[in-house]
Design brief:
This protein is 31% helix and 35% strand. The chain is α+β, with helices and mostly antiparallel strands. Strands 3, 4, 5, 6, 7, 8, 9, 10, 11, 12, 13, 14 and 15 form a 13-stranded mixed β-sheet that branches. It has 3 domains: 3-115; 123-254, Jelly Rolls, CATH 2.60.120.1440; 257-332, Phage tail protein beta-alpha-beta fold.
Length: 333
């Protein structure tokens, strides 16, 4: 067993409550040793939290791997391994469906070396730290911009047998054209496939919403496996998948502020202040607490690379509002 496999199993024991105190200390030291280790642990922990849990479940590591293999069917097509979720899903609660899908998808990607006989593929992960916007140039010259908190993962076979990446959170993609190897993004809420284009993807697992906004080119957007729904999007179109309603729709983009997290540019024209606050919250990853009705107030303004605290200070002066800005929480009175 190599070092990485050892710690993957140790993470699993820790999350299941089976780790000894000595193992907990060893795991903590390993996590603190590098950002890559922390990112791997974070992915495992998020999958564990997404998966339905029961106080009556007794953890058995070998049985866990067997159950994962039962839920995933591996097919080989021209040397490329494809992970296909089983079609029959009999879970009544919607959130259990999304959680199970997310868990299977992410675990299949991360733990592929445990469930295939093919040579081990190294998983590469990039995490945008809380106070940074991260730019990544992939081997095919595709540019990816990760919003704060987003995670992009792929293996070292990228741009050889496929161009497959996995996204959690929000990112902007400027994809290098290659008709022989379409670029594919997998999320817990659906898939996106392109040849060469630029677009924004928001995979919001917490609210069950996947959004794809196209700037140039053409994008195929697919709902999660089992629904068989897909749409094609072109420039200035946005596709959204609502997992609660199991509905896939597209519309014309009328507000470019969805990209402000990358461009730094926010433009409001007679916009309801309530909508302005929602936009600011999404752009800067803020939590807003308001005791005021702001729907009747209107704002026309342009902010270019302004700090969120400066924007809220401007709003407080313009509308005589008591706004308290602390860390990531904004209180409006």
């Amino acid at each position: 067993m190599n070092n990485e496999e050892k710690y993957k199993q140790l993470i699993t024991r820790f999350l299941s409550g089976e780790a000894s105190e000595e193992e907990k200390l060893e795991l903590k030291s390993w996590i603190d040793a590098s950002e890559e280790n922390f990112s791997l642990f974070d992915q495992f922990e998020k999958v564990w939290k997404l998966s339905p849990q029961s106080d009556n479940i007794v953890f058995n590591q070998q049985e866990a791997w067997k159950n994962i293999q039962k839920k995933i069917r591996l097919e080989t097509n021209s040397g490329q391994t494809i992970v296909v979720a089983e079609k029959k899903i009999s879970i009544k609660n919607y959130f259990l469906i999304i959680s199970a899908a997310a868990a299977i998808l992410i675990l299949a990607f991360i733990l592929q070396p445990f469930i295939t006989n093919s040579p081990k593929a190294k998983v590469i992960s990039h995490f945008a730290e809380e106070n940074n916007l991260k730019k990544i140039i992939l081997d095919d010259s595709t540019a990816v911009f990760l919003k704060k908190g987003a995670v992009l993962s792929y293996n070292d076979k990228y741009n050889k047998k496929n161009r497959l990446v996995q996204l959690e959170g929000e990112a902007f993609f400027d994809v290098k054209s290659n008709a022989a190897l379409p670029f594919r993004i997998e999320t817990a809420l659906g898939q996106i496939e392109v040849i060469g284009t630029s677009f924004n993807v928001l995979s919001d697992i917490e609210n069950g919403r996947l959004s794809v906004s196209v700037i140039s080119g053409k994008v195929k957007m697919e709902a999660p496996a089992g629904s068989n729904e897909s749409i094609f999007l072109v420039a200035e179109e946005q596709g959204t998948f609502d997992a609660k309603a199991m509905k896939l729709e597209k519309q014309i983009i009328t507000d470019m502020n969805f990209l402000a997290w990358k461009t730094g540019l926010l433009i409001f024209e007679q916009t309801s202040l309530a909508d302005v606050i929602v936009t600011l919250a999404g752009t800067f990853n803020l939590s807003i607490e308001s005791s005021r009705d702001l729907s009747d107030l209107r704002l026309t303004a342009r902010f270019n690379n302004e700090k969120p605290e400066d924007i809220f200070k401007t709003l407080s002066i313009l509308y005589d509002l008591d706004i308290q800005f602390s860390d990531k929480i904004v209180k409006i009175k």
